[in-house]
Amino acid sequence: MDIKITSSTRNDLLSRNELAFTASYNGATPSRMELGAKIAALQNAPVQNIILSPLRSRFGQRSVQGIARIYDSEEAMNAIENKYLIARKQPKVEAKEEVNNDS
């Protein structure tokens, strides 16, 4: 996967960097976690301080365009971002199947 940063802006008021990027890939579309980890590595930032929204891909193209917001601290991110965006970057928890014994 190759990521090209198309613009980078510092927002001091919200304590974050705002990046527009295009990710080119082969195979399956990368997950939010994979994209976040790659951007964190490129920007030397902690993965837990990155929010990816929105992400757009087009049918037939092997690329994703998106915006990454990299916060200076986790506290600043929690104070500003919506809870559902923070929950999106968490790994999916597989539901445990409960067996009902009616005997």
Fold-level CATH name: Alpha-Beta Plaits
Q: Assess the beta-strand content as a share of residues.
A: 25-35%
Secondary-structure-based class equals alpha+beta
- Cα-atom Rg, whole angstroms? 17 Å
Largest sheet: 4 strands, antiparallel
Helix content: 10-25%
What is the arithmetic mean of pLDDT?
A: 88
- In DSSP terms (H or I, runs of 4 or more residues), the helix count works out at 3
CATH class category name: Alpha Beta
Distance between the termini: 53 Å
Largest sheet strand order: 1-2-4-3
Instruction: Name the CATH superfamily assignment.
Output: RRM (RNA recognition motif) domain
Number-wise, the strands total 4
Elements, N to C (H/E):
EEHEEHH
Q: Enumerate the spans where pLDDT stays under 50 for 5 or more consecutive residues.
A: none
Corresponding CATH architecture:
2-Layer Sandwich
How many discrete domains? Answer: 1
- Which of globular, elongated, flat, extended, rod-shaped describes the shape? globular
